[in-house]
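Summary of Year 1 activities. Much of the first year was spent building the evaluation harness for sequence design. The harness presents a backbone, in tokenized form, and records the residue chosen at every position. We chose the following record to illustrate the format because it has been used consistently in internal testing since the harness was completed.
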């Protein structure tokens, strides 16, 4: 341990610290970042990490219990899902202060699998949730080892917003019965909402439970942006004391948590029925996608703040091992926390020792004082989850997206409705399908342009944007703004022929400005061969300008480079124009070399 200094070492200004992987020590430290941090640990950080860990514990306990209940599990399992994963991530996670644990964004996904399969059996629900965590952990570990940390970037921001807004709405609706002090027996967010409205209308509300929950929610929302005032701790403690002192459980029928089992989580393989395998696999993969999407974003944010480098693939491995540990020690799927991590940071956390202290403090609570929270009202726990769900809802940036690109805004809304109507698991599938369609649509119907010469502007420009642009007689300069692949090959073929047909003079050369073309597949290569035959039959030469070398290498493998001839490829559009004018002289007043 290093005994000097009081804060993590910072790189020189303008640089981000990156871990060297050249030595044997650094190679193993890549897979065990916690041990690497321990070797560099400074005693001056110990006080900060210890205090931050104790402060963090005040949130870990109520939030962990609340999210367990929201996931359809007994509250104790939220603490089990807190202890071992924090210890695992401290060893395998690359982020200095990221806090992992049960999270509201996963509650709806877990509940969607657990609720219909468990049949009201708590132990079966625990086994299902545990196996989902193991599946999610295995997926994350394999993806991290395969260096697939980029996969979550495949979902665009509007689609992520739509999905998270749908999840937030689903979680919020699922907590309203507990908040109002009754229960409903139907499945699905919209059916739940209708049943809740009917129950309230029929006077089934437990007003004592509702008042406790409403007061708890109000306190949390008032102090939610404060780094100094622990709003959740104050609200939950006050609710617990009020219920205990006024004996609201017995007098008013307010539902409470009850005594927690004494002791620590034990290693246990969560066996499930063969019929449950498919939905658990699907749910586990969905959990992996959501948890890593959340974790990768939060990890990058705090890496930027501390000016340190966090390997996204190792982040995926660390998250996977933490989920695997949760599933094998009576927990359920976990993710990073955007509410607990800022608490740790504000309390002065320097390293993952903060999470270790928090985990040990929670464990000590279970061993020494399991009855401490027996009067905690479930309506207060519902308020904790509702407050978190409200925090997931994105409105302001969607307004900006609506102003600048309305179709992406409506994609987000469709995704939100899909999650709310179909459910969390189906909603993830819908989000992925929409993302794929969005990607294919951009490449399927890309922009293309015929280029001309504009006075006073160097280069060649879109004649639809510059109607005054002049065309070179007999030459069509055609730009295609996308990769060439099977979905747009025929469209490219048709647009090229349309450009030739629209030329005001008979065409001798057609030059494809190929700088935006980043790839060519077999289907599009065959299309180019057919296009060359068509153009050749009309006495038109097909040429290519500004094609990138990797794409040109593909054309060589496809045989197109030899077919067209090396002379048909030009490094710039200007070179292509010069070669054309050298063979087919026309007036050059507007085409001087220095103007290009």
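For this record, the design step produced the sequence shown next.
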């Amino acid at each position: 341990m290093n005994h000097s200094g009081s804060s993590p070492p910072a790189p020189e200004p303008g640089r981000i610290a990156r871990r060297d992987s050249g030595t044997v020590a650094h190679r193993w430290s890549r897979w065990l970042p916690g041990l690497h941090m321990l070797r560099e640990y400074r005693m001056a950080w110990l006080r900060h990490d210890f205090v931050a860990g104790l402060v963090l514990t005040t949130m870990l306990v109520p939030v962990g219990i609340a999210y367990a209940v929201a996931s359809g599990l007994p509250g104790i399992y939220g603490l089990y899902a807190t202890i071992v994963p924090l210890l695992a991530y401290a060893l395998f996670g690359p982020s200095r202060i990221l806090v992992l644990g049960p999270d509201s964004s996963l509650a709806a996904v877990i509940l969607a699998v657990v609720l219909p399969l468990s049949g009201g059996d708590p132990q079966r629900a625990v086994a299902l949730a545990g196996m989902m965590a193991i599946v999610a952990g295995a997926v994350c570990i394999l993806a991290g080892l395969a260096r697939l940390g980029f996969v979550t970037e495949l979902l665009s921001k509007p689609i992520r917003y739509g999905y998270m807004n749908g999840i937030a709405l689903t979680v919020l609706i699922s907590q309203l019965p507990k908040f109002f002090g009754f229960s409903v027996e139907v499945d699905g967010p919209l059916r739940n909402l209708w049943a809740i409205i009917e129950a309230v209308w029929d006077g089934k509300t437990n007003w004592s439970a509702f008042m406790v929950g409403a007061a708890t929610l109000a306190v949390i929302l008032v102090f939610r942006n404060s780094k100094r005032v622990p709003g959740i701790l104050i609200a939950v403690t006050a609710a617990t004391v009020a219920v205990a002192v006024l004996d609201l459980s017995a007098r008013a029928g307010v539902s409470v948590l009850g005594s927690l089992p004494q002791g620590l989580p034990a290693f246990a393989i969560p066996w499930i029925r063969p019929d449950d395998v498919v939905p658990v696999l699907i749910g586990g993969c969905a959990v992996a996608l959501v948890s890593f999407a959340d974790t990768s974003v939060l990890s990058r944010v705090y890496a930027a703040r501390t000016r340190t480098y966090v390997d996204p693939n190792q982040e995926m491995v660390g998250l996977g091992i933490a989920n695997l540990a949760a599933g094998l020690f009576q927990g359920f799927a976990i993710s990073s926390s955007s509410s607990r991590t800022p608490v740790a940071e504000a309390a002065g956390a320097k390293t993952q020792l903060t999470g270790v202290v928090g985990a040990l403090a929670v464990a000590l609570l279970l061993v020494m004082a399991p009855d401490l929270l027996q009067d905690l009202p479930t309506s207060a726990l519902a308020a904790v989850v509702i407050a978190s769900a409200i925090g997931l809802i994105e409105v302001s940036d969607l307004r900006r997206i609506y102003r600048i690109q309305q179709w992406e805004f409506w994609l987000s809304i469709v995704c939100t409705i899909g999650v709310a109507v179909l459910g969390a698991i189906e909603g993830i599938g819908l989000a992925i399908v929409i993302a794929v369609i969005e990607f294919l649509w951009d490449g399927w119907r890309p922009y293309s342009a015929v280029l001309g010469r504009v006075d006073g502007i160097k280069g060649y420009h879109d004649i639809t944007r510059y109607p005054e642009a002049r065309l070179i007689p007999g030459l069509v300069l055609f730009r295609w703004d996308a990769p060439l692949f099977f979905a747009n090959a025929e469209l490219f073929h048709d647009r090229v022929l349309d450009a030739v047909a629209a030329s005001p003079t008979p065409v001798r050369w057609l030059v494809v400005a190929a700088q935006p073309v980043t790839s060519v597949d077999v289907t599009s290569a065959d299309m180019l061969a057919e296009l060359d035959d068509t153009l050749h039959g009309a006495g038109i030469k097909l040429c290519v300008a500004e094609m990138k070398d990797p794409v040109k290498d593909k054309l060589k493998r496809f045989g197109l480079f030899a077919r067209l001839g090396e002379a048909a490829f030009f490094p710039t559009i200007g070179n292509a124009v010069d070669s054309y004018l050298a063979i087919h002289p026309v007036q050059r007043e507007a085409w001087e070399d220095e103007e290009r």
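The chain has two domains: 104-336+372-436, 447-595. Quantitative recovery figures across the full test set are reported in Table 2.
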